[in-house]
Design goal:
Oligomer: single chain
Helix content: 25-40%
Strand content: 35-45%
Largest sheet: 4 strands, antiparallel
Strand order of the largest sheet: 1-2-3-4
Order of helices and strands: EEEEHEEEEHH
Distance between the termini: 48 Å
Structural class: alpha+beta
């Protein structure tokens, strides 16, 4: 499922595709989502891995809400690969892909007018497909252990 899908008439594109849970059934990895960034232009054709936490999806929603000409929206970055969309005055996007271990590239894409609304819909589809299910991890285990030892 594509969380981000940006493509222009020249064929340049940047897609962030969520492919599933990182470790289904494992408490610490169940809500982590596996994703890949696909970037294509005349000078680059790349497929890079990324892991998304629920807080990344929350932050992406806020970033989309505040994106205006002259500002940017970021997803990822604190654990490796980052994707930054910087909106130009003409509403085109400078898409910066930075994977510190493998690639740094900048794509220029002119998305359709309604792309932000479409990406809010994409975010909602990802959340409905892979909802957050883990409520609490370590503190609950800690409370159980200290209660049992008392």
């Amino acid at each position: 499922m594509d969380l981000i899908h940006l493509k222009d008439v020249d064929g340049d594109q940047c897609v962030m595709r969520v492919t599933g849970r990182f470790q289904p059934g494992v408490l610490t990895g169940h809500d982590v989502l596996r994703a890949e960034v696909l970037a294509h232009a005349s000078f680059v054709d790349a497929r890079l891995k990324l892991y998304l936490f629920q807080h990344d999806l929350d932050a992406w929603n806020q970033e989309l809400n505040s994106l205006t000409p002259g500002t940017g929206a970021l997803i990822g970055g604190d654990r490796g690969l980052s994707l930054v969309l910087h909106m130009q005055e003409d509403r085109s996007l400078a898409v910066a892909i930075n994977d510190p271990d493998r690639l740094s590239a900048m794509l220029w894409i002119r998305p359709p007018e309604n792309w932000i609304d479409e990406h809010h819909d994409r975010l909602e589809q990802v959340r409905q497909t892979w909802p957050s299910e883990v409520v609490e991890t370590t503190p609950m285990t800690y409370e159980w252990r200290t209660t049992r030892q008392s």
